[in-house]
Specification:
Blueprint lengths: L1 E7 L4 E8 L4 E5 L5 H7 L4 E6 L5 H4 L2 H8 L2 E5 L3 H4 L21 E3 L4 E4 L2 E7 L8 E5 L4 E5 L2 E2 L2 E2 L9 H12 L7 E4 L5 E2 H7 L13
Parallel strand pairs: 3-4, 4-5, 5-6, 10-13
Antiparallel strand pairs: 1-2, 2-3, 7-8, 8-9, 9-10, 11-12, 13-14
This protein binds zinc ion (ZN).
Length: 214
């Protein structure tokens, strides 16, 4: 599987392009803006899936155009469906001046597994940054796409609509830091990291103990 990072939009969101080089199929994670540029990046491949970690404008504003142009299936956490359909709460209207609202095609529950370009993917619900904020874990590759929940030495803000400030610590400690320590972490903003590093240096790791790990 090939992984490419594409920075998009006004707050420099990490959009990830995954390609199965055997089949030519591709998927985008958090296409926050600049749909035309993303489609150009996908040229020569068949874009089949879009995965959303959460409903904020800077992670999903390219979706309507991608759906129109490429006919992709859009996967999102079920708990985040209300935010995707509310252009005030998802901040696309107030912050970006381009109200955007849509329904995902596939709504995923916590722990639900699905096939992503021939590899296994699992949704991990990690409320905090928003009520339905989630991560996508690809166990065969040891990759985690952590959205705005877990950043390198940091975590997502918890003062925006539907945020649950008291939940982000438990989400990170109980659902992410317990993943295998070699897991590569690809966040929604900033540098990539790994689970071993975040166990040591993330501010939310305080109170996390090694024997919590599976
Ligand atoms: Zn966000």
């Amino acid at each position: 599987m090939r992984l490419e990072l594409i920075h998009v939009g006004m707050v420099t969101t990490n959009c990830y392009l995954l390609t199965n080089e055997e089949t030519g199929e591709a998927a985008l994670i958090d296409p926050g803006d600049e749909a035309d540029r993303l489609l150009a990046c996908c040229r020569g491949r068949r874009l089949t899936a879009v995965l959303l970690t959460h409903g904020h404008f800077d992670h999903m504003m390219a979706v309507p155009k991608l759906k129109e142009a490429a006919g992709v299936r859009v996967y999102a956490p079920a708990a985040e469906a209300p935010l995707l359909m509310d252009s005030e709460e998802n901040l696309s209207g107030s912050w970006q001046g381009r109200p955007t609202a849509f329904e995902a095609d596939v709504l995923l529950q916590d722990g639900e597994e699905f096939d992503l370009l021939g590899t296994q993917a699992r949704l991990i619900l990690t409320p905090g940054h928003t009520a339905g904020s989630s991560c996508y874990y690809l166990p065969e590759l040891g990759w985690l796409f952590s959205g705005d929940t877990l950043f390198c030495e940091s975590y997502g803000r918890v003062d925006l609509p539907t945020a649950m400030p008291e939940r982000i610590g438990p989400s990170v400690r109980e659902k992410l830091l317990v993943l295998p320590q070699g897991t590569r972490v690809f966040p929604g903003h900033g540098a990539s990291t790994d689970i071993a590093y975040e166990r040591r240096y993330n501010p939310l790791a305080q109170g996390w103990k090694e024997d919590n790990a599976k």
